[in-house]
Amino acid sequence: MKRWWQPRTLRGRLALWYAIGGTALLALYSGGIYLFIARYLPVEARLRADAAEVRRRLQVRPDLTLWWDGYPVAPSAEWGLQHPWFELWDEQGRLVLRRWPFADRSLDNPLLPPSPGRDVVTIYNVASDLRLRMIAMPLAGPGGRPWILRVMRVHEAAVDILAVFRIILWTMLPLVVAALVAGGYALTRYWLRPLDSMADDVERIGVDDLSRRVSVPPNSSEIGRVATVFNQTLERLQNAFAALDRFVADASHELRTPLTALSNVGELGLKRSRTPAEYQEIIASMLEEADRLRQLTQRLLELARVGGGAESFHRQTVDLKREIAAGLADWSILAEARAQRLELIGEPWVIDTDPVIFRQALMNVVDNAIKYSPEGSAISVTVGSHGERIVVAVADEGPGIAEADRAQLSQRFFRADSARARPGGFGLGLAITQAYLHLLGGALDYEPRSPQGSIFRLSLPRGNGHLSAT
Amino acid sequence: MERAPAASSLAPGVSVLVIEDETKTRNSIVQTLQLEGWAVSAAATGDEAIRQLDAGAFDLLIVDWMLPGCDGLSVVERAHLAVPAPRVLMLTARAALDDRITGLESGADDYLVKPFALAELVARCRALLRRPLTSDRPLLVYGDLRLDTRARTVTRAARKVPLTPREVDVLEYLLLYQDQVVTRSMLERDIWKQTRRFSSLDNVIDVQMARLRRKVDGPGELRLIQTLRGRGYRLGTEAE
Fold first, then answer.
1. Nearest chain A residue to B229, by CA
2. Count of domains forming chain B
3. Which of A333, A434, A437 is best to mutate for the B interface (most B CBs within 10 A)?
4. FRET partner for B225 with CA separation of 20 to 30 A, picked from A177, A293, B98, B208?
5. Which is higher by pLDDT, B131 or A242?
6. CA A206 → CA A148, A209, B65, distances in Å?
7. DSSP H helical segments within A58-212, as ranges?
8. Which residues of chain A does B231 touch, with a Cβ-Cβ cutoff of 8 Å?
9. Is residue B225 part of a domain?
10. Looking at residue B222, which CATH number applies to its domain?
11. Nearest chain B residue (CA) to A289
């Protein structure tokens, strides 16, 4: 549930922060200033000036008589407004002298003696309509006795200024906050506008139209980066979809060939009545095509499972060379039939891998080597290590792969021209091998062999593999 | 078609229930098993199968994994309530190994992945009915062909046939299933022990069979190893 204080948009949230946070901070700041001024300015400065004047003009003689500018201090009644108002208190808290233009009896509250200390400021309500602001400081009395001088002024004057300041604050604060909120909202909106247009762009991108791209804002802000990354993702997605489309098209094409043969043979068989032998021939021919369909669907399924990551694998510690030898034993009969020499050489590596899956990956390559190499040639399978990888190389003396075709080698349904001439293949073997090796953390590489032939390298991570002792 | 076993090792009175929703598949399975001389009932849905299971006892169930109504799994669970519980052969279109394991764990005794050959179906059924063709007979004979299962030696008439161990295995299998079709996938599974069917061994098997034939069927001798186009192999005389 969204509460009212949790606006939906980023800029709304920022504006809200400006409103609440800005107000609070500004209020704190101006409050502090207000309190400072209220306490010290501007009466403070004038009080200090008064105190300095008193110190300069007042003289305490050793006989305890007080003199003002060389004359005895005028009595209270004659103490004009032009002179500073002050009190003198002795060290026992007794009033020595007070000069101000008020009659003591008109006061509601008698003045209390000042507490000792330097520059003690007090505000004192002397009457209902009169507040005095005072500052007290030590003054050396006769014989160095620690007397206290206290000067005072009417507090009202300062209050007036503070009132103005308060009004300024109260009116300005909302204005400032409003400006902050509006500015923040507008700025955020301006900064985040590319995000809005990006969202619009993305909205228009559908599965049918993956070629569209998000417009990248010119400045290299975070949003620009998001847009770039998003576009890269789209690129990969588009490629994946294109590959899928191509795969479906290729697969349908490959499936259509046996299907056409199947239905044509059946149709032809029913055209006229035939002898049982002829019918048997027709049905057998149809079964052959059905078998081809079965094989193709099986391989497609296999590819989809491995490619889609559905294939589970079980690592175990295996003697790779022994494992390969067991696999080659099955295939050696094919090589023998073509008078080819199939040999296994190399180092007896012991590694952690899934032997069944690796064997399948390898046998697709070996099967190709046997199929495409001339009769009487040699095919070698070599086990070795290269850096951190175990490499199994299958070298043949076949026609090799034309340079133009090498990039597509492991694409589904790719068959080199030399292979197309032969019936029986689907062009899925290397794609499956690559998918299997990928599953095992390995890779498939091709290298032409001189003067003729191919070398397919199947590499696996070495892990903590080691050479077998035997 | 399969030939009906003349002097079959199978006792009569085997009753089978076929549960498969696809009509053509169901009909061909039913007819094939009837040719074996078995009493075959059929059901198109899981619910129908359960009604039949309530009504009578069966020795063997052939169940499609994916059924309309209640699925194959529920049928198997229901079937296991019967005493003695029938053997269960699961048919599945899923080639996934994990699904196979699930099928076997759920109480199926064996499985066949679609598409399968009817010959293989019959072979699996026989195995499940504990009437397998494997035997401890010391000598397997077909005409003048003899295979000593202990010494692993083969003779044709008076001629000694030199075979590799694998070739002996294949020939023994053919002799056990004599006069019946042996498919490549049966050989793949039972001789090459390829349980996870990945890259096809078809080429390997074809070459192996060609070599075996060259050795077993000498010049001038009756051809015993037949290649049946699109189906597999059969040990027997030329005519079916």
1. A284
2. 2
3. A333
4. A293
5. A242
6. 89, 5, 37
7. 156-204
8. 284, 287
9. yes
10. 1.10.10.10
11. B230
Contact B200 A298 (CB under 8 A): yes
- Are A367 and B203 in contact (CB < 8 Å)? yes
Instruction: Tell me the sheet residues that pair with A359.
Output: none
Which residues does chain B have within 8 Å of residue A295's beta carbon, measured at their own beta carbons?
Answer: 200, 202
Question: A51-60 b/e with 16+ CB inside 10 Å = b?
Answer: beebeeebeb
Confidence of residue A275 (pLDDT cuts 50, 70, 90): very high
Residue B213 shares a structural domain with residue B118:
no
Task: Sort out which chain A residues have CB atoms less than 8 A from B208's CB and list them.
Answer: 333
Q: Which residues of B fall below an 8 Å CB-CB distance to A?
A: 95-98, 115, 192, 196-204, 207-208, 210-211, 228-231
* CB–CB contact A288 B229 (8 Å): yes
Tell me the pLDDT tens digit for each residue of A194-240.
Answer: 788 888 888 888 766 777 787 777 666 677 888 888 888 888 888 88
With contacts defined as CB-CB under 8 Å, which chain A residues touch B101? none
Contact predicate B152/B165, CB 8 Å: yes
H or E segment at A87? strand A85-89
Mean pLDDT, range A69-84, rounded to an integer: 77
Q: Are residues B93 and B28 in the same domain?
A: yes
Distance of CA A89 to the CA centre of its chain: 72
pLDDT band at B123 (very low <50, low <70, confident <90, very high): confident
What does the H/E/C string look like for A290-351?
HHHHHHHHHHHHHHHHHHCCCCCCCCEEEEHHHHHHHHHHHHHHHHHHCCCEEEEEECCEEE
User: How far apart are the CA of B23 and the nearest CA of chain A, in angstroms?
Assistant: 19
B92-109 pLDDT, tens digit each: 876 555 555 555 666 788
Which residues constitute the domain of residue B32? 15-129
Q: Do A310 and B211 touch (CB under 8 A)?
A: no
CA-based nearest distance A434→chain B, Å: 13
Dihedral pair phi/psi, residue A237, rounded to 5°: -65, -45
Question: Cβ contacts (< 8 Å) between B115 and chain A: which residues?
Answer: 290, 294
Confidence of residue B3 (pLDDT cuts 50, 70, 90): very low
Residue B58 distance to chain A (closest CA, Å) = 32
Residue A136 burial (CB count, 10 A):
23
The residue with tokens 């098993």 is B33
Query: Which ipTM value was assigned to this complex?
Result: 0.70
Same domain, B106 and B164: no
Q: How confident is the model at residue A236, as a pLDDT? A: 84
C-alpha distances in Å from residue A262, one per residue of A256, A257, A268, B25, B109? 10, 9, 10, 18, 34
Q: Quick: pLDDT tens for B130-173.
A: 655 555 678 889 999 999 988 999 999 889 999 999 999 999 99
Higher per-residue pLDDT: B62 or A79: B62
Distance (Å, rounded) from C-alpha A336 to C-alpha A332? 6
Name the DSSP class of B44: S
Single-letter code of the amino acid located at B50? I
In the block, residue with structure tokens 């409103």: A19
Same domain for B172 and B70, yes or no, is no
Does residue B10 belong to any structural domain of this protein? no
Average pLDDT of the segment spanning A352-356: 87
For the cut 90, the answer to whether the pLDDT of residue A132 exceeds it is: no
Q: Do B57 and B112 sit in the same domain of this protein?
A: yes
Chain A residues within 8 A of B202 when measuring between CB atoms: 295
